[in-house]
Every structure is written in C-alpha cells, then in structure tokens.
Amino acid sequence: MQCMVSQQSKSSFQTAMSVATRRKTLGKCALLAWIAACNGTITKEQHERLRDLTTTEDDSILNMALMVVQKPVSEDLACACRAIQELPASEKRAFLADAISVAIAGGTLSIPANHILRLLADVVELNVGEIYQQCVKKPLPTPGDPSNASWWQPEQTSSTNDKRQGDPEQSSKERS
Questions:
Q1: Alpha-carbon gap, residue 34 to 32, rounded angstroms
Q2: Most buried of 3, 50, 74, 128, CB within 10 angstroms?
Q3: From CA 119, how far away is CA 125, in angstroms rounded?
Q4: Which of 120, 162, 124 is nearest to 143 (CA)?
C-alpha cells in the first residue's frame, strides 16, 4: 500500500517511502525515532538503542527517520503507520517490543511515549499491555490525563510524578 498523497504535496519522506525498496524498514525507523523524540529530545540511551536496532546499511534510513521527527508531519507518520501494517504478524510483535525498548531506554516511560505505544499497538492490532508486561516485567502504566482538572490538584497521599506517570499501583489504590 503506497502513501495516498498527491504528487505536488509529497514530502521528501513520502517520496522516499514510495520508491524505497526498504519502505517497511524506513517506516519502522521513523516510528521508533518518533517515540524516542516524543519528549522533545532523544536521549543518549534512546539514540544508542535506535542504532542497535538498525544495521549498518540502514544508517541512511535511520538518518532520514531522525530528520523526519525533527519536524513531524502527520502525513509522514500516517505513511509510516501504513508501512508497518504490512508487516507479518511476527514482525509486528517484534516491532512493538522494539518500540517499548526505545520508549523506556531513557529510564522511565513518559506519558507521550505511553500514548504513542498504544497508538502503534492499535495500528498493528496487538495488545501493548501484554507485550509491555513480557518486555519490562511490570504492567503498562495507565497514562496520565492532563486534560482532567484533578491532574493539576496537589495530592497528599502520593507524589505528583506517580500520578502523572499513571503509576499502576497508585491507580489501584485510588480505585479502592
């Protein structure tokens, strides 16, 4: 499936995706780079993880992916998502595990990375909670919701960071 964009409005990424013999690799790299960059910068650990996940011949592909996330365009990300939908089931699972490893390479799972993991899981039609549990050996945190007024209220029983990270242990305490 090619990217559905008129020739005049195609970005260089979309052009590369339409002619790349390794379009699935480019799509995967772009989405992994997007997860790494979702907090505004790519940490040293995330950059190393991205390099570990790509082969030497993929350096130009990774470099293009890193350029895409500097100024992300929704059509580019949609194009990359369509590319990973074409992966075989086993590669989809491996891709999601790789996305998790990039997301947590900086130490903790951020709220934006948590949401992106959930989006990517929807794209490849897999259960991110199950794969996260297998990779990290703990449950996937519920993402925080800054649109909720309670997000901004100080808490006395838990740290704000636990609330914002969607700490699963804290979430279960709040429900009881």
A1: 5
A2: 50
A3: 10
A4: 162
Q: Specify whether the CB–CB gap between 102 and 40 falls below 8 A.
A: no
Instruction: Measure Cα distances from 97 to 26, 87, 121, 138, 141 in Å.
Output: 17, 14, 10, 14, 16
pLDDT, one tens digit per residue, over 16-29 is 766 656 788 888 98
Non-local (6+) Cβ contacts of 173 within 8 A are 157, 158
| Beta-carbon contacts of residue 125 (< 8 Å; ≥ 6 apart) | 92
Helices (H), 38-110: 44-53, 59-70, 74-85, 89-104
- The DSSP code for 21 is T
Q: Helix/strand/coil (H, E, C) string of 93-115?
A: HHHHHHHHHHHHCCCCCCHHHHH
Q: CA-to-CA distance for 108 and 88, rounded, in angstroms?
A: 29
Determine the Cα–Cα distance for residues 49 and 104; give it in Å rounded to an integer.
Answer: 10
d(CA 148, CA 43): 29
Amino acid letter at 68? Answer: V
pTM attached to this predicted model: 0.76
Contact predicate 123/81, CB 8 Å: yes
